[in-house]
Design goal:
- 62% of the residues lie in helices and 0% in strands.
- The chain has seven helices and no strands.
- The radius of gyration is 14 Å and the shape is elongated.
- The chain starts with a helix and ends with a helix.
Length: 111
């Protein structure tokens, strides 16, 4: 599944449209590495917040389903990030999903 993400990247996204962790992971994939290794091999940005930028998409396509949003976001982030880099995208996706049906910001953050 994470390798499907890379197949799409290599087919549709120009390398210079990526930066930091994504660019390193993209280069690693272009060299033939498979997902999960692509996130950590010579990738000094692997724990940065770059994956959070894509987390909104998974929240929007999974309204009122934060668990599914987080699961999809985690799979997406795993190709270019590890640990906190992944967890950040999962959190953003879950909160946006919850925000689709809840207007209580405190509840969205705490739950």
């Amino acid at each position: 599944m994470p390798n499907d993400v890379f197949e799409a990247w290599l087919s549709w996204i120009p390398i210079f449209s990526t930066c930091t962790a994504d660019r390193v992971a993209y280069k690693n994939a272009a060299m033939g590495m498979l997902a999960l290794e692509t996130a950590s091999y010579f990738n000094p940005y692997r724990k940065w917040i770059g994956a959070q930028i894509g987390g909104d998409f998974f929240g929007y396509i999974n309204p009122a389903n934060p668990e599914k949003a987080a699961e999809m976001a985690g799979r997406d982030a795993s190709v270019s990030h590890v640990k906190n880099g992944i967890y950040g995208e999962m959190l953003v996706a879950a909160m946006i999903s919850a925000a689709c049906v809840c207007d209580n910001v405190k509840m969205i953050i705490e739950d």
